[in-house]
C-alpha cells in the first residue's frame, strides 16, 4: 500500500531522516517507536507532505506522491492525526468531523463513526474545546476517517491520555482496520500500546531504523531498552 525508498528529510542545513526505506502492506499496522527528537514526527510529516523530502521516493498504491502537496496526498488516500490532536476548540464535535470530509458524509459513515466512538455521539453538539484529552483524540481520529483514507497516519495518539482511554483507542484502531480494511502507521513511545495494536514495529534513532521485528518476535523489554538509551 505504501512504499518509502531512500527518504531524506531535514530542516535548513540539518538532515533528520537518513535514507529510510520501508514498505507498508495493505491492512497492516506498522508502529514507529523512538525517543523524542529521534525523527518520528519528521518522518510522518514528510509522508503526509507537511515537510518536503530532500530526496527519495514515496509511493502510495504504486503512485509516486513525493512531489505532491499535502491536500493532494489526502485526496489520494492518506489521512493524518497530528500530535497534540489539533482539533478546533470553538467548533462542535460534528463540525470538527466535517472539516475532514471531502464532500457530503453518508449516514452510514456517521453510524460507523459513532459505533467506533460512542462518546462522540453523546457529545456531538458540544464544543471541541470542552472535551477531555482522550475524547479529543477520538475526535481527531474520526475527523481523519471521514476522508475515507487508504492509509491512516497517527503521531503519538496516546500522549497525555489516561490509561483507560488508551485501551479504548487501541480497540478502536483494531476495529478501524477490520471495518475499513486500511493500513495504519502509528508513532508511539508507550510499548504496551504498540504491542497491542501493531503487526510490525521499527525503532528509530537519530533518523535511522535501528531495529525491526514482526509482532510475534517483538521483545517488549528489548524495545524499552532501546528507547531508554
What is shown here, in short?
The protein is an alpha/beta fold. It has helices spanning about 40-50, 70-75, 95-100, 105-115, 120, 135-145, 165-180, 190-195, 220-229; strands at about 1-10, 15-25, 30-35, 55-60, 65, 80, 150-155, 185-190, 200-205, 210-215.
Descriptive report:
By secondary structure, this protein is of the alpha/beta class. It has a single domain, classed as 3-Layer(aba) Sandwich (Rossmann fold), CATH 3.40.50. Helices cover 37% and strands 27% of the residues. It is built from nine helices and ten strands. The protein has helices at 40-48, 70-76, 93-98, 107-116, 118-122, 133-145, 163-180, 191-197, 220-228, and strands at 2-11, 14-24, 29-33, 55-60, 63-64, 78-81, 151-155, 183-188, 200-205, 208-214. The protein has a six-stranded mixed β-sheet with strand order 6-7-8-3-9-10, with helices on both faces. Strands 2-1-4-5 form a four-stranded antiparallel β-sheet, covered by helices on one side. A hairpin with a 2-residue loop joins β9 (200-205) and β10 (208-214). The longest helix has 18 residues, at 163-180. The protein is globular and about 45 Å long. The mean pLDDT is 92.
